[in-house]
Amino acid sequence: MAWYAGMRITADRLKYSSRFVVANAALTANSSNITSTTEVTIVTTPSAVFEVGRAYRFEFSGLAQHGTVSIYDLLYLRFRRGSGALIRNVQDVVVANRATASRNTAVSVATIATPAAAITDTVYLTASWDTGSTATFMMAGTAGTPGLLTVWDIGEAADYPGIATFS
Which of 20, 22, 61, 143 is buried most deeply by CB count within 10 Å? Predict the structure, then answer.
């Protein structure tokens, strides 16, 4: 939102003046094993409101544990709505320790999207691996080292030309 000299401060301008969190959740226990192309739900936020014309940043920061020695694989992380609708698919290559299995690797993924219509729903993160992989993954989390799923309202969608839409 642009600000110009002489503008009045309104509730809308205060609300939308800076980035703010609309939903978040923490992964405080290890996920189920990820052993196929079937998606495993990792963490889910409470319900949130997504407004038309707003841009949202979906981000996850956490730990992926690769349970196979001397191998690297493609891990798919997907941001989805509670209805199951895909928001965005993100691909990440996780490299295992060459001599030891079950080591944690930091993972940080994010995307920006805008809703095609007003939506009230939860957001969740899923994980699966690429076709042809043979690894075992899990997303690691503890109360002291949680994985964090955060959804931010980052401003007007028009400020981010070409961003994806979700429905």
Answer: 22
Is residue 98 exposed (0-12), middle (13-18) or buried (19+ Cβ within 10 Å)?
exposed
Cβ–Cβ under 8 Å, residues 145 and 139: no
Closest by CA to 134, choosing from 67, 64, 42, 47, is: 67
Instruction: Kindly state the helix (H) or strand (E) to which residue 83 belongs, with its residue range.
Output: none
DSSP H helices, the chain, are 11-15
User: How many Cα atoms are found within 13 Å in the side-chain-facing hemisphere of 38?
Assistant: 5
Cα–Cα distances (Å) from 14 to 18, 29, 75, in that order, read 8, 37, 39
Three-class secondary structure of residue 16 per DSSP: coil
Mean pLDDT of 114-129: 95
Which tokens belong to 14?
A: 């205060």
Rounded Cα distance, 48 and 143, in Å = 24
Q: Tally the residues of the chain.
A: 167
Over residues 47-53, mean pLDDT: 96
Task: Give the pLDDT mean for 111-117.
Answer: 96
Sequence-distant (≥ 6) Cβ neighbours of residue 90 within 8 angstroms:
76, 77, 78, 79, 109, 110, 111
CB 93, CB 144: distance < 8 Å: no
